[in-house]
Every structure is written in C-alpha cells, then in structure tokens.
Enoyl reductase (ER) domain-containing protein
Amino acid sequence: MKAIHIPTYTPDPSTLQPSNIPTPTPQADEFLIRITHCSPQHADILHAQGKHQNNNAKKGWCFPPFTLGYDFAGVVHSLPTSGAEGVAGGLRKGDRVLGAAIGAFAEYICVKRSAIRKVPAGLSNETACAMVGQAVSYASVVRIAKVQPGETVMVSGASGGLGGVCCMVAKACRARVVALVGDEGKAAQMRGSLGVDAVVVMRGGGGGEWMGEVMEFTGGKGVDVVLDNTGMVDDALRCLAYFGRIVILGFAARKGVMEEVKMNKLLLKSATVVGYRFGESGRRFPHELEEIWEGYLGMMQEGRLKPLLYGRYDGLEDVGRALGDLAARKVYGKIVVRVADEEETAKL
Ligand SMILES: NC(=O)c1ccc[n+]([C@@H]2O[C@H](COP(=O)([O-])OP(=O)(O)OC[C@H]3O[C@@H](n4cnc5c(N)ncnc54)[C@H](OP(=O)(O)O)[C@@H]3O)[C@@H](O)[C@H]2O)c1
C-alpha cells in the first residue's frame, strides 16, 4: 500500500511523499480499515520531526520507522477474528468509521474497536474526518464551561481546528461569540464562514490594543467565558467579566514556554480557571466520553456543526503540501486529504 512512511525523523515534513510499504496485518482483536480521508494537524508535524512528547526517548512510544498521521475516516475492510465478546462492538464489514490512531496517512490501518466509531447516517466521511479531532471542543463548551444562552464567549486560536469548533458549539448553545485570530487575512475569511458575532485580530500580541475591541463588544463588562487554545490566561483575565470562567485547552502560541500568572488577578475578578485534558478524562471516565461523543455527533447530524474545510488536497501525494501549509500558519479550519472513494475499489 501507499503510505507516508517515516524511516527517520525529518526536519521539513512539507517534503514528505508516499512510498510503498507492506499492508499491515491485523491482530486477532483488530479491524483492517480502508482509509478514505485523513486530516493532517500540527501534532503530525511534531511526530515527523521527532519533537512530539510521544517521541521522547524515555517516556514516548512513537519511534521510526512508523507511518505518520492520526485522524482518519474510512470503511471497515475486515473484522477482528477473535470471537471474544465486544471485540467487534456491533461494527460490520463495509461500515463507514471515523477514528484516530497513529498511521493514518496510508491506504489501510489496523485498529482496535476503541479507536473507531461508526459515522452516523447523513454525514459524509469527509465531514467525519474533519471533525474527528474536535470532540474536545464540544466537551469544553458544553460540559466544562457549561456555556449558557446569552453568555459572551471568547475563543483564542479560533482559526485552528479546536478553536473553530469551539466557536461553532458556543453559537449552537446560543452564546455571543468573539473569535480571536492572528491576522487580517484569516479574519476576512472567517468573518464570512464562521457565523460568529465578532472576529478580532490580535494586533500587537499579548496585552495589545485588540483587548479594547473585546471590551467594547461586551459594553465594558468583559466576556463570561474564555476558551483558551493558545496559552493566554493573563490576557484572558484582563478581558474577563466578574465571576468569569477560563478553560485552558492548549498552548499553541507559547513555543513551549508556559506563562506565569499573578494569583491576585484571579481573586480580583472571582475568576474560575480550569484545565481540560480530553484524552485522559476519556480514559478515566469512559461513560462520560460516550455521552460526549453522542452529543457531539448528534449536533453534527442535526446540521448545527459544519466543518470549515481549508483548501483542496487530493491523494497522499498532497500530505506534504498540507503539512507545509499548516507549518506556515496559512490554514483556517481543517485540512482534509481525500485518500480514496467511499465505494469499495480495494486492491487487496
Ligand atoms: N486539551 C486537550 O485535550 C487538547 C486536545 C487536542 C489538542 N490540544 C491542544 O490545543 C491547541 C490547539 O490545537 P489545534 O488542533 O486547534 O491547533 P491548530 O489547528 O494548529 O490551531 C492553533 C491556532 O493557534 C493560533 N496560533 C497562535 N500562535 C501560534 C503559533 N505560534 N503557532 C501556531 N499557531 C498559533 C493559530 O491561529 P492564528 O494564526 O489565527 O493566530 C492556529 O490556528 C494545541 O496546543 C493542541 O496541542 C489540546
């Protein structure tokens, strides 16, 4: 099969091209999935470069040679051969699935049941692939921040995968949404396509004039909720209303250097600051994870969440270009690479 194979780490993932490697053989408890779409993200760049925490020589598990990629959608090509209860988990050959597992930039992938979910009727594999990585955004808005109708929600990194869906879910919860973006070009694109109430360009970076725009938007009161994808708690506190809530989701803008925040700022505004680690929460509380996926996929099926797709990428040959565009911060929304048609034309 064709795959983006990493025999050694590479400093510039935009040069990556597919090569031919053996199609993986599933274990008794694994499905073989024929991949139809994959969605490159920043973590893939880090994995290719060997800079992700998963590549850490002592604590990591992802070392060359490996196949790159994480988020995918596809079709069940073969079922697990183990007859043990729950191994196939109600899935059948030919079912369309969305999933996340290392090795997604390939024509086929072997996965356990826990890595995949059935794509609900009415959703395309392209949509499922674009949205598979952002259940965290849904959960952060609905379950962690518990956003209420009429509240004002500010989202940092709103042009990113998580940020865009945070905005959409907050709108679906009937909040007023302020999207923060890095430059005017992206802002112009997003004003038309994201459906938010205000798009604010973070001119001057941290502590910049843009905060005045946010405060003006809220009539001087400040925002009720901040969903922070970039690492800007100090700025978030300055824009926050009394008794406001900040959810820390990521540190995309911190370049590995964490900020230090004076605790009196929390007290002065009676602020709540909470972190949310989606993967670990799901492992510890699997029942809640199921509820989250049900709610998230339900919103998608009802048409209340629609993926914001960036550009056109066709075939594994386009994965390198996609990673280059991500690294250059050109992208708003999600890239989806079409790998194959949903109809079976398998070579196996
Ligand atoms: N909490 C969790 O469980 C969880 C789960 C998954 C991911 N995450 C983390 O959440 C964060 C967002 O993930 P994502 O997938 O949405 O990332 P993404 O698609 O790369 O988006 C991040 C956004 O941050 C903005 N940004 C500002 N400064 C940046 C910089 N120096 N480099 C890159 N981007 C910068 C960019 O928008 P502008 O260019 O418009 O500023 C970009 O669109 C990441 O830190 C990720 O590791 C957390």
